[in-house]
Each structure stands twice: as C-alpha cells, then as structure tokens.
Amino acid sequence: MGGRPMFVLAEDTERTQGRDAQQSNISAGKAVSEAVRTTLGPRGMDKMLVTDTGDVTITNDGATILNTMDIEHPAAQMIVEVAEAQEDEVGDGTTTAAVLAGELLSKAESLLDDDVHPTTIVEGYAEARDIALDAIDGLVLDEELTDDLLKQVAESSMTGKGTGDVTTEKLAEEVVRAVRHAEGDEGVVRDNVRVHTQTGGSSSATELVEGVISEAEPVHANMLRVVEDATIAVVDEQFGVREANIDAEYSVESVDQLTAAMDAEDRELREYADALADAGVDVVFSTDSIDDRPAAYLADAGLLAFENVADDEARAIASATGASRTSKVEDIEEADLGRAETVRVRTFAGEDLAFVEGGAAAQAVTMLVRGGTEHVVDELERALSDALDVVTAALDSGGVVAGAGATEIVVADRVREEAASIEGRKQLAVEAFADAVDVLPRTLAENTGMDPIDGLVDLRAENDEREGRAGIIATGQHGEIGDPVESGVLDPAAVKREAFESATEAATMIARIDDVIAAE
Question: 277: closest CA among 259, 304, 256, 251?
Fold first, then answer.
C-alpha cells in the first residue's frame, strides 16, 4: 500500500469507541430513567410535557412521558422502547421497567470501572433475571381471582393518577364489569373493551355502555334518534351519483331529455333507500359520504344513517352486531346484517354520538369517559386503559402478587441468596442486579415522603418477619410499612415478569456496545 492510509468510513463519520462509547450510552440511558423515576408509585409526581406546537400534557404515566419526550440519543431511545414493549405486552409497569433498566445500567457502569468484562455482566444479569422470574412465580397469591380481588388490582393501577372528581373505587368497579363482560371461554377479548373520551360534564359522569360508541352523526335532521331492535348494515360505499370510468360528454337538446336525465339520476339515488328498506335494514353505517339527496330519501324511508364512520369504529360495530361489511348496498344479503337492541343518538356539549347497544354477536363494551377539560379526560383515559390492561393480564397471564415494593424486596433477597453459589466475577454481576432491584422500593419510599435509606432498611426487616408480605403503603400524604395484601395493593404477576425481562434485555444490550459509528 506504500504507507498510504486507507479510509473505510466517510470523512464526516463520527466514531466513539471503547470506554467512551460505553460511558456515553450508559449516561444517556440513566438520564431517561431518572426523568421518570419521581413518577413511580401512588405518590409519584406529575410531569408537564410541552410540544413544539404548544400542546400541553400533564401526566405521571411513564409510557406517555417517554413517548412525548423528544429523545435523539440511540441508547436513550432503547429505554423508551423498553417502556413501549411493556405497554404493548401488559399495559402497565412502564415506569418500573424504565427505572429498573436505568439502575441496571448504573450498576453495570460500576462493574465496568472495576474491570468486569461486559460479557460477564451480561451473563450475570441473565442468570439473575431467571432467578427473579422464578421468585415472582413463587409469590403469586394462591387465591381465586374474584371480582373484589380484581377491583383491588384495578384500583392499585389507578392510585396516584388523575381521575377528576370520581373515586378510583368507583372506576375500578366499572373496569371489572367491562372486563368480565368481554371474558369468554378462551379468556378476555381485550379488543372488545373500548374507551371513548368526551369533553364536557364531570368525571363522575363516566359510564359503562354495553355496546359501541361512534362519533358519526345522523346525515339528516329528520331521521329518528332512537331505533329499537335494530337491523344494521355496515357498508363501504359512497351514497351518490355513480361516476363513469371513462370521460364522456352528453348532448342535451331538449327539456324532455334534461327531465329524463334528472329522473334517471333521481331513481339511481332512490335505489339506496329502496335497497336498504327491501333488505329490512333500520340503521346503516357508511365509512364513506352520503350526499344530501340520498340522505333525504333514507330519512323518508324511516332509516337512520351515519356517514364517514371511522374504520376502527366500523370494525367494532360490525363485530359487536354480527354484521359483515359490504362494498355495495345492492349486494346486501340477510347474512350481512347485524342486530342490536338499541341504536340511539345522544348529544354531549353540542356533539352527537351514536350508541349501538346490546349487540348480537360479541360482548363489546365501551367506557364513556367524561371530564371538564381535555387534560382531565386524557389522563382519565390513560388511567382506565391501564386498569383494563392489568385486570386482563391478571385473568389471562398468571394471577397477582403483592404490590407496594413487597415483591421486589423478596426478589432482591432471593437473587442475593443465589449469588453466593455462583463462582467467579459473574457473582458480582448477580449481586449488582439485586442491588439494582432495590431502587424500586427505595423510590417508592422516597416518593411517599419517607427517608429512602431508612425506609428500605425497615422494609427488609419487616419483610423477614412477615414472610414477604411487607410493602410501602401510602397513607394520606405519607408512607408506612404494611401488608400490601391486607391493604388491597396488588399487581398482576405478568407486569412484574415483563418489567424484569424487558429492563434486563435493554440494559445488557446497551452494556455490550463498545463502538458507536454515526454518520453526520
């Protein structure tokens, strides 16, 4: 090569290697974790998130916070993906997963400073994770998942979140009713439980509707507002004059020709109402538009019609009523029609909503969330969605465990015990994993006003005496050591498992990176 340098990367490529790369990635991950740490638990603080367009969100929901933050660092983005995976899988525990991932990175940083190889850290963390998961399985309460127990699970997930002027106890009752309604022989069909927000009115007006709600409005003022024992059609067709597929010009030379053309067009528009009436349809939902003249003919025929129905709403209505979506009105058959006990139009703050209740095919329910402002209904929607997810997870994915940090204390102790039997430097990583888990009960204690160190020490002592049934219980504005099960603080075991798995995966992935190559 004659001593000439070889350039493999472009001149504007930025490259960070070795310890500098590890330090940068770990610091970024820790920073994201620290951003949500103070929101953990029933006394966690809220964050105000302001977008570049001025939209404001006030919440302590970890997934919402991380998704709204404008994060560019790739390692930090991996922590966001931890929260997203947690949200997608079990619907709750996003803050727990993010905080644990950040603490695992912090402990890994100390191990790297002590010349422990990243591969050793990864192997130790993986072994500690397996011990933790076994410990969680052993802590599942051997109790039947009654409605009362599920209400405690739902209420625990909503405690500390904004619910307006309605109590978490009342909301938990509605959540359990909704999930039970959607429960079948093969478990809960989560898609059959929807949440619909409507600004206006107090949060206490939130209600459970046994059916589907659509934002579509009647297409004509003279249409009925209530239809009992309704036969329903869901179509994907525009109600209007059909356009030709080719460009054509028509020459009209007399009034009679013009009248004939208009009569033909009128007959075509009337065919929509005639075809639906002949099929026995009472209510039609169209995902496309309905022109004024066909709308008038539908009203004259006594039909209730809705246009521009959102695709997800159309799917839900079809599923709930047993209807099949059709592309043309003229092709509708008896088997395509659905049934509902009632279709009614209700008005909220000047806006009409369509309620399809008592569907014939599926156990669809909708929680109608009310609130005086958008901030209130948005936060209430997040709280209810989390509650629905955790109740579903408890029923479908392996029961419940004690909350309030009790499970984490037992897991940390179990990992420390097992670490003694592990040889070599890997033992250091397993012990570091146990120390990282302590961040969760320590943060709970801190966020309830307790001294975090004293709270953790007292919790460990009480945990030994109560055989794993001691946690940080929020009472008033302070916290104290108590029995989470007696206090009704319960979490789905699936939430804990997913948090440990996703946090460990992200931390080990970041710890293994020793070279960052970025194009400018």
Answer: 304
**Rounded to whole angstroms, how far apart are CA atoms 358 and 191?**
17
What tokens does 407 get?
Answer: 């499970």
Q: Render pLDDT for 292-346 as a digit per residue (tens, 0 to 9).
A: 999 999 999 999 999 999 999 999 999 889 999 999 998 899 999 999 999 999 9
CA torsion 506→510→516→517, rounded to 10°? -20
**Neighbour order of strands in the sheet with 304-306:** 211-214, 351-359, 338-348, 226-235, 283-286, 304-306
* Cα separation, 495 vs 94, whole angstroms: 9
Nearest-CA neighbor of 175 among 356, 374, 369? 369
Cα separation, 288 vs 339, whole angstroms: 21
Buried b (16+ CB within 10 A) or exposed e, 59-95: bbbbbbbbbbeebebebbebbbebbbbbbebbbbbbb
Its pTM stands at 0.79
CA–CA separation, 318 vs 285, rounded Å?
10
**pLDDT tens digits for range 228-255:** 999 999 999 999 866 544 555 556 566 6
Q: Which residues are part of the catalytic machinery? A: 61, 94-95, 386
* Dihedral sign of CA atoms 50, 51, 56, 57 in order: negative
What local confidence, expressed as pLDDT, does residue 251 receive? 61
